[in-house]
UniProtKB/TrEMBL annotation:
This is DUF1273 domain-containing protein. It holds the Pfam family YpsA. SUPFAM superfamilies: MCP/YpsA-like (SSF102405). It comes from the Bacteria. InterPro entries: YspA.
Amino acid sequence: MKTLAVTGYKPMEMNIFKHDDGRIQFIKYALKKRLTQFIEEGVEWVIVSGQMGVELWTAEVVLELKEIYDINLGMIPPFENQDNRWPEPIQFLYQDIMVQADFYKPLYKGDYKGPFQFKAMNKWLVEKTEGSLFLMDEEFPGSNRFLYKEAKKKDNYPIYFLTPADLEDAVLEWQMSDPRYWE
């Protein structure tokens, strides 16, 4: 597998309401561990649509991993100015990632026109990638349910998960790596 789409919950779906919430570091840690495995197994491109939450955090992780690995980041938003109504700190993050991505191109020119743009983005992501990584619980897919349904339709399309249990493991591993944990 050379191309991997990554998506997951929006911040509010994880009860994260501040751009600097301390829990984000654990999510990024878990993403980094999982993405490193994929990269070491041959993934060359990580593709996101650039939505708030897991997708932007994934993009940050990929940009960090570029210092060590030969990995590319593609950001394909459903339309231009996707970040218009977001909180300012997240807009700045989006703009920064947009500039640093190896490939950036919105599917539709102009601003939001309707839900068909998100539907087209989901189809595009599944058609153009060889697998997907979802940070979600299958029982509670949240806004990911549409992309997840699209991914399940495609034959021989691997779907991987980072679950809440995986996040708990990452938190524990993070804490145990601190020598003070063992005191």
